[in-house]
């Protein structure tokens, strides 16, 4: 009976740990609308690219999330990183290069066009599977051009 209880307890702990993992890239940026004459349909396009530098594999090739003006942060879910980290066929322990960028898409143009952008891939140390599992990767972006 004790063995069964220990097994159930271990299973519940494992399940709770798996569901608590984040696998997100959190992106925050300065309030900047780049002189867009918003007619109600302008938005920020937030794009994330993730590359496993150790294994020479692109994990996320450009996931974009769109958010309305007035929103200056978003969590981009990247479950692909979890899948990649669980791959038993990887030759090396993954070490990631992560890029996050934000563009202002202005509806003064038809279709809306990106009129300014900011982005970065600066992280020290480079994110690992553990980084993503524990708290994700954070970016603060400024200097729209």
Terminus-to-terminus distance:
65 Å
The assigned structural class equals: alpha+beta
Largest sheet: 4 strands, antiparallel
Share of helical residues: 10-25%
Individual helix count:
3
- Globally, the shape reads elongated
Low-confidence stretches: 1-19
Succession of helices and strands: HEEEEHEEHE
Strand content: 35-45%
Mean pLDDT: 87
Tell how many strands the DSSP assignment holds.
7
**Cross-sheet strand order for the largest sheet:** 3-2-5-6
Using only CA atoms, what is the Rg? 19 Å
Question: What would you say this structure looks like, in words?
Answer:
By secondary structure, the protein is α+β, with helices and mostly antiparallel strands. Helix content is 22%, strand content 39%. The chain is built from three helices and seven strands. The chain has helices spanning 2-20, 79-85, 129-134; strands at 24-29, 43-52, 57-68, 73-77, 96-106, 113-120, 137-141. A four-stranded antiparallel β-sheet has the order 3-2-5-6, covered by helices on one side. The longest helix is centred in the N-terminal third of the chain and has 19 residues, at 2-20. The radius of gyration is 19 Å and the shape is elongated.
List keywords for this structure.
single chain; 145 residues; alpha+beta; 4-stranded antiparallel sheet; 3-stranded mixed sheet; 7 strands; disordered N terminus
